[in-house]
Amino acid sequence: MNEFKIKPEYSITDEQSLRGLFEATHTLAILKCQDTLGGHAQEFIRRSPFLCIGTQNLDGKADVSPRGDPVGFVKILDERTLAIPDRPGNNRLDTLVNIIANPSVGLLFIIPGFDDTLRVNGQATLVNDPELLKSMSVNDRAPKLAIVVKVSEVFMHCAKAFRRSHLWSPDHFQDRTEMPSLVKIILDETTGAPSNKDEMRKIDDDLEEDYRRTLY
Q: Bridge partners of 109?
């Protein structure tokens, strides 16, 4: 595949040029942005089992990480403070290292079956307060730390992206077996996957066992 190169004359590099391509936003889109968690936002968060958290390091390198747990896993500590448990992962710690360098975060809360989403922006701190962590235990296992977010912006996001993607429609679900397993993809792109199908199946089974043992 040949490298794609952007033609300079078609690159949008300033806000005035950008806004010139679009109609002005309507008043409600501006007014909907709040600086505290209102009743509806709190109810949305209590129903949500999944969010994505966006972070950046000091050099502006961006990262987005998924976080999921039973419904209501994000604790609402007050109308401007949230706590997100950090569950066992691959220990790359991309999100956590970024927060230490640059505390600004963006959260996108998702509820299965809902086309609209909730966006929350704020400043994050890594916290290992034992009392807080114990309150976030699952299967008697507390997280090692929590991401505590001081909220600065809260607003609902419209349903267009989810409706365009048909994300929740079973008619548009894809067959996972049409692509290799997670481990095979990683091995293909790094050290190489075994050609023996039984050996590869054993590696896949080991990952499933690891999921079972280390989910919490």
A: 51, 118
pLDDT, one tens digit per residue, over 117-146 is: 999 999 999 999 999 999 999 999 999 999
Distances (CA, A) of 25 to 20, 155, 158, 211, 213: 12, 15, 14, 45, 49
pLDDT tens figures, 15-74: 999 999 999 999 998 999 999 999 999 999 999 999 999 999 999 999 999 999 999 999
Instruction: Give the chain's radius of gyration (CA, Å).
Output: 21
Q: Are 148 and 125 in contact (CB under 8 A)?
A: yes
Which CATH homologous superfamily contains domain 24-165? Electron Transport, Fmn-binding Protein; Chain A (2.30.110.10)
Per domain, the residue ranges of the chain are 24-165, 174-214
The CA distance from 152 to 141, in Å, is 31
Q: What are the counts of helices (DSSP H) followed by strands (DSSP E) for the chain?
A: 8, 7
- pLDDT tens-place string over residues 61-74: 999 999 999 999 99
